[in-house]
Amino acid sequence: MADRPKRFSMIREFHLADWFTLGNAVCGVGALFSAMTYLENGDLRHVYFAAALVLAALIFDVLDGRVARWRQKSSAMGRELDSLADVISFGVAPAVLAYACGMQGGWDRIVLAYFVACGVSRLARYNVTAETLSGDDGKVKYFEGTPIPTSIALVALLAVAAAMGAVRETLWFGQWHVAGWGLHPLVLVFALSGSLMISRIRIPKI
């Protein structure tokens, strides 16, 4: 009688670093909830909560890598978890926060969707090329394109705008109307960030 295939146990397959990765994802989801709450009630505290949660997600993202190296344990599952968590915390959450802060025109939505798509593509490219980019010690020496967590700078920008009262109708640089659709010039920083993610710029991995 043939041996039955070994059942995959998700909990057993988790390493310590993976729990930090899940912390990243949970913070990202919390940031989404805060952004949606601000969209509903206009209480600026929720913008700050969202920004703080994205920062917390970044801390978890840094720690999961350090813990994996300390424990000398990593897995394909951990790499996939990391990418999925990063998409939530540093792709979707900043885009939704930007929308909540007033970038709601037709062109704004296209740019924000482009930003998220670039982040997803950047992470997918990293996953399939990580082995190729690794040195003799098995470690990746550099990134191609800016890492998606650099979007924390965009979140910080939105938090500063909120602190200065420059959100919604008073967003910096106002709004243009192009072909009948609204475009807030500030959203172009998301277009720039997304484009840098999918660029071939080499950035040394620290």
Automatic annotation (TrEMBL):
Q: A Pfam family in this protein?
A: CDP-OH_P_transf
Q: Which UniProt keywords apply?
A: Endoplasmic reticulum, Lipid biosynthesis, Lipid metabolism, Membrane, Phospholipid biosynthesis, Phospholipid metabolism, Transferase, Transmembrane, Transmembrane helix
| Ranges in coiled-coil conformation | none
Q: What is its main location?
A: endoplasmic reticulum
Recorded metabolic or biological pathway in which this protein acts: Lipid metabolism
Q: What is its EC number?
A: 2.7.8.8
Q: Name one GO biological process term.
A: glycerophospholipid biosynthetic process
What protein name applies here? CDP-diacylglycerol--serine O-phosphatidyltransferase
Q: Which organism is it from?
A: Simplicispira suum
